[in-house]
Amino acid sequence: MEQIEKAINYETLKHIQTVQGLLLNIIRELTFRCEQHDLSKLEEPELSTFVEYTPKLKTSTYGSDEYKRFLSEMKPALDHHYTLNRHHPEFFQQEADATFRESPINCMNLIDIIEMLADWKAATLRHDDGNINKSIEINKKRFGISAQLTSILKNTVIFFKNK
C-alpha cells in the first residue's frame, strides 16, 4: 500500500511540475509580448501616421463611418503594423484565406487572443466614448468571432474590471 501511495505522490508531483512549467512558458511569452507590444508604432512608416491620427481616433466612435475613413487613410501604416504584430487578426488574414478558415481569429492562439483583448481594452480607454463590450460586439461581426469566444472575451473583461 505504501508503494502505491509513493507512486501516486510521485505522479501527482510530476503532474503539478508539468503544469507549472507550461504556465511558466505562457508567463514568459506574455512578458515578452508585454515588453514588445506595438513597438513598431515608434518607428516609420508607422510613427508619423499614428502621431497624426491618434488624436483624430480619440474623438471618433469605434466602428463609425468616420472611424473607418481614418483607418482607410492610415492603411499603409496599418498594413505595416499588422504584418509585425500578431495580436491583430489581420496578421493572420492570408493564412486564414489559404486554409479556408472562416476568420483570421481562428488562426490565433490563446496568447494572441489575450494580447488582442488587452489591446482592445486599452484602445477603448483612448476613445472619448470607448466601451469594450461594444467593441467586442463590433469585432464579433467584423472578424466572425464565435459566440463561445465572445463569451470568453466578455468574461475576461469582467476579470480586468475586478483586478
Can you put this structure into words, describing what you see?
The structure is a single chain. The chain has 163 residues and is mainly alpha-helical. The chain has two domains: 1-36; 39-162, no CATH class. It has eight helices and no strands.
The chain-level mean pLDDT equals 95
Query: What is the alpha-carbon Rg in Å?
Result: 20 Å
Domain module count: 2
The string of secondary-structure elements, in order, is HHHHHHHH
Q: Work out the helix count.
A: 8
- What is the SS-derived class? mainly alpha
Query: What is the percentage of strand-forming residues?
Result: under 5%
Biggest beta sheet summary: none
Number of strands: 0
Question: Which outline best applies?
Answer: elongated
What is the helix fraction of residues, given as a range?
Answer: over 70%
N-to-C terminal Cα separation, in Å?
Answer: 46 Å
Sequence stretches where pLDDT stays below 50 over 5 or more residues:
none
